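Researcher: I'd like a structural prediction for the single chain below. Treat it as a standalone chain; there are no partners to consider.
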Amino acid sequence: MFLAMNANSEAAATRLLDQFNVSEQVVRNERYPRNKPVALQMLELILANLLLVFLLVSLALLGGILIALSKRVARKWLPDWEWGSPDGERLTTLNLR
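Model: Treating it as a single chain, here is the predicted structure.
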């Protein structure tokens, strides 16, 4: 990657870039490559964000279910462990004063 910034003129930058094999150029005001309207692009972005939120919520619920099931399995097969004992069922509260 080679940038021809702060050149004195466009001709000077072009002469400098002509010495190299330029495969692509990036321009500040280049438009988005798709020919979709802005409203449709925004709708796609919103739907993608909703899908991401749904995925994260689903994974959180799945994690909670897996924890509950693992506690039941531990309570049944490993009752001597802390994870399987019924004493670990109470809530832990912090007394911050």
